[in-house]
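Reviewers of the previous submission asked for a worked example of the structure-prediction workflow described in the proposal, so we include one complete record here. The input consisted solely of the amino acid sequence. No template or homolog information was supplied to the procedure at any stage.
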Amino acid sequence: MEIALVETGTRGVPLRTRCTGAGRFVRQMGPPGRFGVIDLVLEPEPIYGCTLSWEVSEEQIPLLFLDAVISSIKHVLSEDAFDGDYLSGCRIRIVDGAYNSTDSKISCYQMATVMAMREALRSAGLYAPADSTAP
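From that input alone, the workflow returned the following structure tokens.
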């Protein structure tokens, strides 16, 4: 499934290299647990704007969590640590993930997506490095 992500702002940042990100939000201390796992790939594409390609099965990540993934991607792109206002010429591919019928929640996939996007954008040089002095 392909989804066009709407870009806003005046500073579109082109993606120049393929990069990957993995988000693992797993907290199993006491019931109920928290479980969200997502792997994504950012790839340069000869398009204006940015598209999302949902390449996982319902067993890997149910479609119920698609809106949480999209809103989390947009959240990361709006953070001050991101170099622009939006990604231009980019395909974001959701390529893998994991789901637990008891412990997976929308908030878990939001956190996992944020972690994966930040990791991928850091490796592309488009997101400020993690502060090594932070606790």
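Residues 59 and 99 are 7 Å apart (CA to CA). We consider this example representative of the routine output the project will generate in years two and three.
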